[in-house]
Amino acid sequence: MGLEFMPIFKDWAVSYDDEVEGHNPQYKDVFEGYWDIITEITNQSGNSILEFGSGTGNLTEKLLQAGKKVYPIEPSQEMRAIAQEKLKDYQVEFLDGDMENFPQAENEVDTIVSNLVFHHLNAAEKNSALAAYNKILPSGGKIIFGDTMFLSQAALDAIIEREISRGFEDLVEDLNREYYPLITDLEEIFRANNFKTTYRQMNNYVWIVIAEKI
Ligand SMILES: C[S@@+](CC[C@H](N)C(=O)[O-])C[C@H]1O[C@@H](n2cnc3c(N)ncnc32)[C@H](O)[C@@H]1O
């Protein structure tokens, strides 16, 4: 179901916005350029957007500031409460759901976005989620995901070795626990679900994948 990591977010919600500013040394490199990443996702998006794993609402706010209609979905009640309070001056409702089970948006969407979320789904779940998004999006519609991903298993292994040497135990546990994809594998499941992809590296961990429905 891709929800096995939810207990982490229950505790993380209150400190999450501090961490995106790089205040946790172990995650500083993951969050490097965070605001540029969500700005780039916003710039690449269309006008009517389904957002998954909206967290504390930072990407949602950027999208709304750019004048887009946003349907944010977030499984953590704690994250939703923070986001709803933060964005109380906007007309937006943070709905309960996740990347696989979610309420249908009121209007057609032309873009599906998320940042730092897709790696919570294992390979089979990623594939079935993309099959569902194919049915939602029109031809030319886009999926834009920012996430930690790696060019090769050797690149992932090298990063794990480096973080072990820096004593970053929490980060090492995270890298071994969650389903961080290789770009070659991602390319294949997007292609199998009728999307063509481009990739842009944003820091040592995070890339943005832009997938256009053929
Ligand atoms: C690292 S945070 C990213 C939050 C936000 N997107 C951002 O860029 O700041 C990951 C978020 O994904 C949510 N999440 C975890 N598993 C999920 C799933 N299967 N579907 C949707 N969201 C999920 C968590 O509750 C959390 O809010």
From TrEMBL:
<feature type="binding site">
    <location>
        <position position="74"/>
    </location>
    <ligand>
        <name>S-adenosyl-L-methionine</name>
    </ligand>
</feature>
<keyword id="KW-0949">S-adenosyl-L-methionine</keyword>
<dbReference type="InterPro" id="IPR029063">
    <property type="entry name" value="SAM-dependent_MTases_sf"/>
</dbReference>
<feature type="domain" description="Methyltransferase type 11">
    <location>
        <begin position="50"/>
        <end position="145"/>
    </location>
</feature>
<dbReference type="Pfam" id="PF08241">
    <property type="entry name" value="Methyltransf_11"/>
</dbReference>
<feature type="binding site">
    <location>
        <position position="98"/>
    </location>
    <ligand>
        <name>S-adenosyl-L-methionine</name>
    </ligand>
</feature>
<dbReference type="InterPro" id="IPR013216">
    <property type="entry name" value="Methyltransf_11"/>
</dbReference>
<protein>
    <recommendedName>
        <fullName>Uncharacterized methyltransferase BG261_02045</fullName>
        <ecNumber>2.1.1.-</ecNumber>
    </recommendedName>
</protein>
<keyword id="KW-0808">Transferase</keyword>
<feature type="binding site">
    <location>
        <position position="53"/>
    </location>
    <ligand>
        <name>S-adenosyl-L-methionine</name>
    </ligand>
</feature>
<comment type="function">
    <text>Could be a S-adenosyl-L-methionine-dependent methyltransferase.</text>
</comment>
<keyword id="KW-0489">Methyltransferase</keyword>
<dbReference type="GO" id="GO:0008757">
    <property type="term" value="F:S-adenosylmethionine-dependent methyltransferase activity"/>
</dbReference>
<dbReference type="InterPro" id="IPR023553">
    <property type="entry name" value="Uncharacterised_MeTfrase_YrrT"/>
</dbReference>
<dbReference type="GO" id="GO:0032259">
    <property type="term" value="P:methylation"/>
</dbReference>
<comment type="similarity">
    <text>Belongs to the methyltransferase superfamily. YrrT family.</text>
</comment>
